[in-house]
Design a protein that fits this description.
heterodimer, A: about 150 residues, alpha+beta, Heat Shock Protein 90, 5-stranded antiparallel sheet, 4 helices, 5 strands, globular, B: about 110 residues, alpha/beta, Transcription Regulator spoIIAA, 5-stranded mixed sheet, about 40% helix, binds adenosine-5'-triphosphate, binds magnesium ion
Chain lengths: ~150, ~110
């Protein structure tokens, strides 16, 4: 289906850029008169994916993160892609509390948060090549009669 | 983000202000630990009431401060937790390790 609006951005894997990705998705969601809860949930999910690209994908190196935010009707689709080290076992990585980080700075909740705060989460990855995370969330908005 | 410290009758209230993501998390833990160490409070309470955003990076900040408080033998709690931040905390099961207190509005 054709998108009603598209934002593409490309940022270096520096932690100071995490906020930009959140602002972009919030800007697209704002066009759908979302509830506060809907905005903060999709922002949190996007923040998890971008942080993963920075922390795990590129680690101590700096690489590019490619972010696409699309609006298709009331649905927001966000793709976060990196060319970092990739994930060996995606199923395992998606388990709650699973982390490969050892310093105590991570808790292994990123994918669980992405899953809970979106309607659909797809992860594809190739070790040594990179990772692509696709998040989809329908914004029902403030006028939702449900 | 910013952190503000206030002594509330022996309890150190740590107000988290702004957005707590991976970027902001760097250094925040040390800053809080430093205040705990020099002020020597009877207890510590992390206040999320003015925090506009938090993702999983915040979880490690909380668990790290729990460790600090355990090491010096004082209790720690969370307060002012709502919305999606509350959901993130509950998802992680952190409430099994740290007490979440309702806001005591009169004292604010
Ligand atoms: N973009 C990525 N590139 C390489 N590995 C990744 C990527 N995203 C996730 N991973 C792997 O998947 C694991 C689980 O990710 P998840 O976000 O759930 O937890 P975490 O990042 O370790 O901790 P938290 O998100 O709670 O801070 C990571 O520890 C890492 O090994
Ligand atoms: Mg993560």
């Amino acid at each position: 289906m054709k998108a009603d609006n598209v934002i593409r951005m490309q940022v270096e894997s520096r932690s100071c850029n995490e906020g930009f990705a959140r602002v972009a998705v919030a800007a697209v969601a704002a066009q759908l008169d979302p509830t506060l809860e809907e905005v903060s949930e999709i922002k949190t999910a996007v923040s998890e994916a971008v942080t993963n690209s920075i922390v795990h994908g590129y680690g101590d190196t700096i690489g590019m993160i490619y972010i696409t935010v699309k609006r298709i009707g009331r649905k927001i689709q966000v793709v976060i892609r990196d060319k970092g080290k990739g994930i060996e076992d995606i199923e395992r990585a998606r388990e709650p509390l699973y982390t490969t980080s050892t310093g105590g700075e991570r808790s292994g909740m990123g994918f669980t948060i992405m899953e809970t705060f979106s309607d659909r989460l797809r992860v594809s990855s190739r070790p040594g090549r990179g990772t692509r995370v696709t998040l989809e969330k329908t914004i029902y908005g403030k006028d939702d009669p449900r | 983000m910013e952190v503000a410290f206030e002594n509330r009758g022996g309890e150190l209230l740590v107000e988290l202000i702004g957005e707590l993501d991976h970027h902001a998390a760097k250094g925040i833990g040390q800053k809080i630990d430093f205040e705990i160490c020099i002020r020597r409070p009877a207890s510590v309470c992390l206040d999320f009431g003015k925090l506009a955003f938090m993702d999983s990076s915040g979880l490690a900040v909380i668990m790290g401060r729990r460790r600090t408080c355990m090491e010096i033998g004082i209790p720690i709690c969370l307060t002012g937790v709502s919305g999606s931040i509350r959901k993130v905390l509950l998802m992680s099961g952190i409430q099994k390790y740290i007490k979440m207190k309702e806001y005591n509005y009169e004292s604010r």
